[in-house]
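From the methods appendix. Each design record in this collection lists the tokenized structure first, followed by the designed amino acid sequence. Records were kept in a plain field format so they could be parsed without special tools. The example shown here is representative of the layout used throughout.

RECORD:
FOLD TOKENS (288 positions):
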């Protein structure tokens, strides 16, 4: 009664509840603890599970998949002893020259060579202009052209190539994919005078989508075969293509050893090469 009268008195303050509240927890205090609390759920779980959980937390590395203690994560497929799938061949794989294509590569198309005809000149001119080469002195009688099977050429080309299809480009299942000529210069005064006619390999070009099959190398061989035993052969090219011609026996010559017939074209070609390809123009020579 004394306590009740004190609570009703005007001297009572809420802070006094703390002073008079019992310090011992009620008999049902354990029920007030949430079930999600580790203290409350500890007694509900077997002791072995707590020990296994502690070992997994304290282990420096997870157990290997072969261990009985290993547990695959949820929503994760279990590891299987199957080996990884075999690697696929790269789409850029190309067949070796004159051989079969590697597994998964593009097979080498069938190629044939023949002398050019007047019907081929339209295609040859477009090929030469597409590579910023000299379109002058194109004589159909000096050209050798390379043709690929039309089906293989159409599969390699995503479109019509450089300049599209023209008259004579596709004939009897074959498509013109490359060309080159061997020009014969008459002797003049200056460098090389009195040594017979000057042979120049020029206008060598292959469709971009058909490169990588050895067509350019075979064209060079066909052209050099046509002048076998006639002396030296010269050509003008850019620095980025010297390695290609070196494989066929050509080597760079100094500026003072350039034949007089090619000096003017070398001078003009230097400007074109610098503008179109950012490269230099040079003269190369081979003895056949």
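DESIGN:
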């Amino acid at each position: 009664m004394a306590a009740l009268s004190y609570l009703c008195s005007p001297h009572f303050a809420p802070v006094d509840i703390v002073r008079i509240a019992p310090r011992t927890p009620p008999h049902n205090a354990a029920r007030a603890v949430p079930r999600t609390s580790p203290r409350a759920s500890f007694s509900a779980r077997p002791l072995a599970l707590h020990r296994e959980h502690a070992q997994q937390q304290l282990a420096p590395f997870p157990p290997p998949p072969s261990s009985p203690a290993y547990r695959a994560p949820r929503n994760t497929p279990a590891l299987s002893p199957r080996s990884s799938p075999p690697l696929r061949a790269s789409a850029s794989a190309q067949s070796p020259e004159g051989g079969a294509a590697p597994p998964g590569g593009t097979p080498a198309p069938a190629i044939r060579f023949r002398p050019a005809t007047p019907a081929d000149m339209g295609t040859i001119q477009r090929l030469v202009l597409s590579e910023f080469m000299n379109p002058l002195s194109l004589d159909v009688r000096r050209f050798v052209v390379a043709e690929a099977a039309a089906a293989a050429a159409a599969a390699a080309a995503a479109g019509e190539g450089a300049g599209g299809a023209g008259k004579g480009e596709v004939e009897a299942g074959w498509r013109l994919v490359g060309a080159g000529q061997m020009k014969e210069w008459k002797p003049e005064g200056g460098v090389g005078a009195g040594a017979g006619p000057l042979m120049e390999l020029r206008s060598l070009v292959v469709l971009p989508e058909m490169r990588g099959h050895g067509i350019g190398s075979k064209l060079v061989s066909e052209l050099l075969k046509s002048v076998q035993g006639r002396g030296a052969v010269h050509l003008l090219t850019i620095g980025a293509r010297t390695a290609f011609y070196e494989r066929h026996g050509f080597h760079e010559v100094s500026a003072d050893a350039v034949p007089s017939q090619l000096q003017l074209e070398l001078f003009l070609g230097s400007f074109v090469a610098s503008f179109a390809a950012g490269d230099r123009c040079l003269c190369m020579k081979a003895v056949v």
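APPENDIX NOTE: Strands lie at 111-115, 143-149, 170-171, 174-185, 198-206, 232-238, 251-252, 281-287.
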